[in-house]
Recover the amino acids of this structure.
């Protein structure tokens, strides 16, 4: 016989059960209740299916018909989302933390810059963790600190090995949903294992292998911090694609943004290359990176303009009847999706990169 558990009886009747979705597996949702450390494996109410209401990790949901003994329930409603990333599907994330190592692998300014710009395009708050500080001298740390401050960032220097910086990071993650991203080998799995004990990510695991398993975009999981807060992991990848309009690129460099806040360029469509009276061009370290990424952005824009015309962008699909019918190619959909500039686009790119890896 299924009895009600005494300690949680007070939640059962009048109080609506609110929880957060931590994992999605097939048609089941793992929900953690807000007011009791209790987990439910839930299905989604058919009414939600009918209205096309998707449920993603990070969603705050209303759980009905709780079966306390079996830990089963049904999701009856999804609360409005603060933010929404589509790939991976994560709701309500507040910040993205980039994790890099100072050594092993040696921190590469251009690669870091590329990740930073990519992260800025997502539209969430961007944090930066530099791990393996035990492998470098204090002078190296000071130099990076100063350099990154000039870029507009306040990096956290970490060492999993000796515990440096972990408390500060914990404070920044407290009670928030945060997304972690970074290249492989920097200590991201070690870090998540440490922050969220019980997670058991494989340290030193080969990214290629993970890319097809736990890390695929179809299976996203949030890891719980003991004192509150959730982490979403992203797979390792090495060179994120910067899919951004050339005209927008400068907005993703805090240094350039600051220059534009105090003065403006003569031309409103200035790309800050060799135009006269440009407020952005100048003596700042990452201006070279800006020009480098701008070339990519322009080349990408040109490539999009060269998209095949409507007919050739159709693929031939043979229907059961034996008749032929044209249907839009997947690439067109991808193109459309990329051209729609929204918050989740960039993270989607980060993941796509990893999936294609
Ligand atoms: P991931 O690929 O980013 O998930 O990195 P892993 O967590 O798998 O770690 C990669 C390697 O770096 C492992 O051999 C770890 O033991 C090592 N590592 C992680 N953190 C530190 C650190 O703070 N200092 C040093 N020296 N090595 C670390
Ligand atoms: Zn300009």
């Amino acid at each position: 016989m299924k009895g009600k558990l005494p300690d949680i009886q007070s939640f059962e009747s009048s109080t609506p059960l609110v929880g957060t979705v931590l994992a999605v597996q097939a048609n089941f949702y793992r929900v953690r209740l807000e007011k009791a450390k209790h987990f439910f494996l839930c299905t989604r109410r058919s009414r939600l299916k009918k209205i096309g209401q998707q449920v993603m990790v990070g969603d705050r949901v209303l759980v009905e018909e709780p079966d306390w003994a079996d830990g089963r329930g049904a999701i009856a409603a999804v609360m409005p989302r603060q933010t929404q990333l589509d790939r991976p599907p994560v709701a309500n994330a507040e910040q993205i933390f980039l994790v890099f190592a100072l050594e092993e692998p040696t921190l590469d300014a251009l690669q870091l810059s590329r990740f930073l710009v990519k992260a800025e395009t997502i539209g969430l708050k961007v944090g930066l963790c530099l791990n393996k500080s035990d492998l470098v001298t204090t002078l190296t740390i000071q130099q990076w600190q100063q350099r990154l401050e000039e870029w507009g960032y306040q990096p956290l220097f970490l060492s999993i090995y000796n515990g440096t910086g972990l408390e500060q990071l914990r404070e920044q993650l407290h009670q928030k949903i945060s997304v972690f991203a970074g290249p492989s080998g920097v200590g991201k799995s070690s870090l998540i294992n440490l922050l969220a004990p019980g997670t058991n990510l494989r340290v030193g695991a080969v990214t290629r292998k993970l890319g097809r398993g736990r890390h695929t975009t179809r299976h996203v999981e949030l890891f719980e911090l003991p004192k509150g807060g959730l982490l979403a992991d992203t797979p390792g990848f090495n060179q994120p694609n910067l899919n951004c309009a050339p005209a927008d690129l400068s907005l993703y460099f805090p240094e350039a943004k600051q220059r534009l806040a105090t003065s403006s360029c003569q031309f409103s469509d200035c790309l800050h290359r060799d135009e006269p009276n440009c407020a952005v061009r100048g003596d700042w370290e990452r201006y070279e990176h800006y020009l480098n990424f701008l070339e990519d952005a322009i080349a990408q824009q040109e490539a999009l303009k060269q998209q095949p015309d409507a007919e050739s962008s159709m693929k031939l699909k043979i229907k059961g009847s034996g008749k032929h019918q044209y249907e839009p190619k997947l690439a067109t959909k991808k193109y459309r999706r990329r051209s729609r500039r929204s918050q989740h686009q960039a993270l989607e790119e980060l993941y796509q990169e990893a999936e294609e890896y």
Notes: The longest helix spans residues 287-305. The two ends are 51 Å apart (CA to CA). The pocket of guanosine-5'-diphosphate (ligand 1) is lined by residues 131-132, 134-135, 159-161, 184-190, 203-204, 236 (CB under 6 Å). The first strand starts at residue 17 and ends at 25.
